[in-house]
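[Automated response] Your request has been received and processed.

Submitted sequence:
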Amino acid sequence: MTETLLDVKTLKNYINGEWKEVDETTAVINPATGEEVVKVPLSSERNINDAVEAAKAAQKEWSLVPAPQRAEVLYQVGNIMKGRKEHLSKLLTLENGKVLEEARGEVQEGIDMAFYMAGEGRRLFGQTTPAELKDKFAMSVRAPIGVVGIITPWNFPIAIATWKSFPAIVAGNAVVWKPATETPIMAYELAKIYEEAGLPKGVVNVVFGTGSSVGDAMVHHDDIRVISFTGSNETGSHIAGECGRQLKKVSLEMGGKNAVIVMDDADLNLAVEGILWSAFGTSGQRCTACSRVIVHEKVKEELEQRLLKEMKQLTIGNGMDETVKVGPIINDAGMDKIKKYIEIGKNEGAKMLAGGHELTDGKFSKGNYFAPTLFTDTTVDMRIAQEEIFGPVVSLIPVSSFDEAIKANNGVKYGLSSSIFTKDVNQVFKAQRDLDTGIVYVNAGTTGAEIHLPFGGSKGTGNGHRDSGVQALDVFTEWKAVYVDYSGKLQRAQIDVE
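Generated structure:
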């Protein structure tokens, strides 16, 4: 299958519009089958230096191209992606493992982002404001920052890359991109699409490699003035510290410990659907995945039974199979982390109702598969209710009131996504106000963000910036204040005011 989907056996870096070979490589493994898909370069600091040099030169010319013309390239990118949606989706499933239905959704997200950010090429709004002196004009405009570095994760290898690169490009910047080594194929394909769409050489450069070599070189390069990172809290905190020392702008989107609140008046059928999709879609490998269900004690037992019944119907296997709903775990490290937290949950006294084990028999023998897992009688202070597991593991936390539910939701270090199922309009509006997450869903699960709204969270989830939506432009632009005095004389603000 790999031979029919992918046109190369070894990927190359894409620098200044040319494909550059790197001597050292590593294998990309299909998590569903354990088979090698392609080889990916392990680049060095030298490769980053070459990419930044190309980006720096290209950005000077690109920033002078009128924004509506820059947008035309993104329209082309979106159209090409639209025509190749099925091909891209299958490649995504091949390297990442997520089921085809989800892969198609992710590619569509990239298509949507292309058209949305292309629209900003005719907007990029600044502001005009009255000046305080006669015969004087005052305004603010967005200005590109220069060369930006984006570091993207394996779980959404094309969607997150479009969230970051498209606003950077339309705003007049040049990009150096380090994709995850687990899922580099989407970067290869998107680079080809940029080239075909007519993006000038050097505006986007792709350098494959590890975080410790390529990522670190990007963070410390003087000519990269923005780092946009999605990944673990540990790595994000390190990047923030290093960028802070250099006075370098940094945007972080990190972990989540997201909860679905189910009140006693909730539509339980709908709640079960939302929980299943949020907890076990992408095998729980989303930063927005539901890993906690905060349930009113009056409906706890009924919800448990309904969840257990529906969990038995989940089909697990290779994401290329259209009947499969839960795919594999990305790699051995991910499996080991999940297994560790299963033992932690047991030792803490949580009651395991389903799952809790690796799947190894028959069709599962060559891939990384873990049974969807449900804990109950979890308390808010347990580690499985506090720490991100990043797998198909969900814990039920019983509460006795709305206020207790809000407190339980907010009692973690993360603040990405939350959800509440209730028919009480008063509780709906209180939840919108009081849930301390960057994303709030009502009568829906914790996943399913749309690209025209800001994506990100509070507390340990990030540092206040947002991917997606018009707010993403703030990461890749600086505000410039412009004053035009046409009085013909020197006027001093605050001093010469009559």
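Summary generated for your ticket: The chain is about 35% helix and 20% strand. The chain has a mean pLDDT of 97.
If you did not submit this request, please reply to this message.
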